[in-house]
Amino acid sequence: MTHPIRTLEEQDEPALLRDQFRQLLRYRTLLALGVAVGLLGGGFLALSGDDTYTATGEVQVRSATADPFATGASADKGINIGSERQTAVSDTVGTLAARSLAAKGDKADARALLRGLQVTNPPNTLTLRFAYTTTDPVLAKVRADALADAYLAIRRQRTEGSIDNMVSGYRAQMRPLVEQRDQLAEQAGGSAADDTESARANLVVAISELNRKIVELKALDTTPGYLNKEPVVPTTPTGAGLPLLLGLGGVVGLALGMLLSWVRLVFDPAVRSTRELVRSLGAPLLGTLPRERGSAGTLLAIGRGGSRLAEEYRAVAFRLAYDPAFARARRLLVTAPRGDNAAAAAAAANLAAAFAEMGRDVLLVEADLRTPSLAPRLGSVARAAKPRWTAPGEEDGGWPAGSRSNVDVPGSGAFTLVAGQPVDNVPRALTSAPVGRILSEGDRPGAVVIVLAPPVLSYADAVALVDRVEGVMVVCDPREVHRSDLERIREIIGASGGTVLGALLHPARGRRARKDAREEARRDERDDGRKKSGRRRGTGAPDPASGHTRRDGTSGDPTETLGLRSPFGTPAGRP
User: Fold this and answer.
1) Is a pLDDT exceeding 70 seen at residue 547?
2) Is residue 2 scored above 50 in pLDDT?
């Protein structure tokens, strides 16, 4: 089964964005925490502060002019509105406003008075908007009015002061000219009369020009501006209310949660998507097992009716059956990356049942010799039978001799189970000749051998079997496995001469389920220990190799088990 694996860079941009958004939604706790923090902050801001009121007045600024109605006269001549805005919030205006308010009983300091003032300039206008905010609506109106009047008064004072200074300067220039004119008038007559009269005429012209300028300055209209909008008492508080602050807090909190989720996603070593899993493992995704409430505590999903979980196992089995790499050897090693091996055991058992439905002779070998648990979990459906490959003298030996049993799957057929047993030397047992004869049964037409191995990164047991099984299926939870683990599994299996056929994803289990699985594994270990000590005392269990007869009268040989025929091959010895 060779499928081209497209890298993340080759995916289209909308698909990548959707994938990243789904990855962020994995951290629902951080998103909920951010929204909760935002809502609490918005509620605190809305309920902790007092209601404030804002009174607003608008002043139109104008420059001093001799004739505002003359053609070409402009009110903005010589006005820098930015400088005027700075003047409106200056200490000079605040001091004058504080004096006028003190006469009315408001003992506000100049700096405290300016603290609640905000002066803005609407674009493309000569208007200054005075907005004063405080907790008393009447006080806000009074102070806004006082500050606007103070600004106009200061501006008038400065304009009139400039006119007085210029008039004084003109008069100072004119005073010596008048004295010279008077002296020339006393010297009139004689031979120099013409020169004296000419100088006197020049002085008169200069004096007249100065007088004209003085008259023009005194005739200027010094009105600094107009109060276009008088401040009124506000009736409603300003600022955002509780609903708006809660909404803003929720939006800000959601953004904070998204940021925290993104940071968590960046530093998360776990697999973030199926694309990343396929790229890290270098193999396709065979299937994703659904979560079923009623499947807890039950190992075999196939045979319990038409459930989604059983159909997914059947789909994975059909996909493997059509895989050229699997069809060449018909041997499959099922393992997990690390940790709990319960999901891999369930997958191995259900795949064995699915292949049995196809009419295959299925042999399921539990190669987990450290904590074997497959036979106890299968329960009463597993019955002992004598293994076909047992040579003379090996019946009473250790594992795998004498560990064979038939597993009946209601409505599907049966498969043969070689249950694991605790041994002293696990590597020697896995590489022994009897295990090689078991695995070689996959060479028979119509036979399928499935090997359940311990987690590949926890023990080297799976690596010891890869060269003889070749095809490997990794069963994992994408939320628990790391990208580096998948890359390491790919390297280990490739270096051992095997091929990763694909990955099977199972849903994450809660803390309670993981705790129950650990307790069940401990109980199995204690039971195995008691059985082993009992056998040493001579009180062991009955010989599992003894033959049994099925309820339908047939023997326990899987070759006599009736199963569903399929186009994938007919078992050996069948018509």
Assistant:
1) no
2) no
Instruction: Return the structure tokens found at 215.
Output: 């008259």
Question: In angstroms, what CA-CA distances link 443 with 101, 326, 400?
Answer: 105, 12, 19
Type of residue found at 340? D
Distance (Å, rounded) from C-alpha 532 to C-alpha 222? Answer: 114
| Residues in contact with 323: Cβ distance below 8 Å, sequence separation at least 6, in sequence order | 1, 471, 501
Nearest to residue 336, comparing CAs of 497, 423, 462, 511?
462
The Cα-based distances of 91 to 110, 117, 253 in angstroms read 7, 12, 40
DSSP 456-475: TTT-SHHHHHHHHH-EEEEE
What distance in Å separates the CA atoms of residue 522 and residue 390, rounded to the nearest whole number?
Answer: 31
Query: Contact, 211 vs 173, CB < 8 A?
Result: no
Give the model confidence (pLDDT) of 343-372 as tens digits: 899 999 999 999 988 888 899 998 888 888
Predicted pLDDT of residue 268: 76
Strand partners, 417: 364, 405
Closest by CA position to 95, among listed 251, 84, 87, 436: 87
Laid out side by side, the sheet with 331-335 consists of: 285-288, 499-505, 471-476, 331-335, 447-452, 361-366, 413-418, 404-409, 382-384
What was the pLDDT predicted at 130? Answer: 93
- Distance (Å, rounded) from C-alpha 418 to C-alpha 430? 13
Is 0.85 surpassed by the pTM of this model?
no
The residue ranges of every structural domain in the chain are: 53-171+221-229, 274-292+307-509
- Whether residue 550 is predicted with pLDDT greater than 50 in this model: the reply is no
C-alpha 498/C-alpha 468 separation (Å) is 8
Specify the pLDDT at position 6.
47
**What was the pLDDT predicted at 467?**
82
Can you tell me the distance from the alpha carbon of 113 to that of 127, in angstroms, rounded to the nearest whole number? 22
Q: Which two tokens stand for residue 119?
A: 């002066």
The class of domain 274-292+307-509 in CATH terms is alpha beta
Max Cα-Cα span within the chain:
168
> 173: phi > 0 → left, psi -120 to 50 → alpha, else beta; which?
alpha
Amino acid (1-letter code) at residue 462: A
Give tens-digit pLDDT for 23-43: 788 788 889 999 999 989 888
CB 330 within 8 A of CB 442: yes
Q: Is 449 exposed, middle or buried (0-12, 13-18, 19+ CB in 10 A)?
A: buried
Average pLDDT, the chain: 78
SS3 category, 210 = helix
Distances from the Cα of 231 to the Cαs of 28, 81, 162, in angstroms?
A: 50, 21, 30
